[in-house]
Amino acid sequence: MTEPAKHQLPLRSLVTIHPGYPFRGKLPVDKDGDAFVVQFRHLVVGEPLDDRDGAKLDRVTLPGRRRPDYLWPGDILFMARGTRNDAAVIRALPANTVCTPNFFHLRLKPEAFKLMPEFLAWQLNQIGAQRYFAMCSQGSAAPNVTKTQLGDLPVVVPPIEQQKLMMKLAEAARREQVLLEQLIENRQRMTDAVAQKLLCPDTTTGK
C-alpha cells in the first residue's frame, strides 16, 4: 500500500503574512487602554496562546486611526526578530488584541482549508524550519527574518488525518514533559528537605 503524497508549498501560498501593529518607541502601556497586546514574553514554545480574558496580556491605547489587524483564533504568531524564531497558534484571546511589530501575524488563506493551523505552527518550530530561519539571519548584526524569507519557507502539507495524529503525539509528548518536570521538581524538594535536616543541626538540642 503506497503512502499518500505529501504536498510541499511555499508558506506565502498558504497564509497571509502581516507585521504586527506599528507601535513607535516605547509600548504605550495603559491599564485602561482600548486594546490588548501580545509580546514575546507571553509565548511559551510548543504551547498555544490561550488567554480568553487577557489576564496575562498588556493593555494599551492604540495610537492612530488605522483599523488594527486584530488577532483571531487559528491565527499564528511568528517571532521574526531576535534569536528566537518560534511560532504559536492562537486558541483564544480578547477580540481587541494585536501583537507588536516584532511578530509576523499569519492567517490561513481560504484555499488552505486542508492545513491545520496547529500543525503549521508546530512545523515552524521543527528543526528543519529553525535551521532555515537561522540561515536567514546569518551575518546580520540584529537577527531578523524578513517577510520574503518567511514566505519562501517550504511547508509540507500531509493528509489531514496525519496532521491530526501528529498533533495528538505532540500534545502527549508535551504533557509527559510537564509531568516529568514536576516529578523532578518534587524530588529535588524532598532531597533539599532531607539535606537540610541532615546538614543543619537542631540548635535547641545540639543534635
Automatic annotation (TrEMBL):
The keyword DNA-binding applies. Keywords: DNA-binding, Restriction system. GO terms for molecular function: DNA binding. The keyword DNA-binding applies. One of its GO terms (biological process) is DNA restriction-modification system. This is Type I restriction modification DNA specificity domain-containing protein.
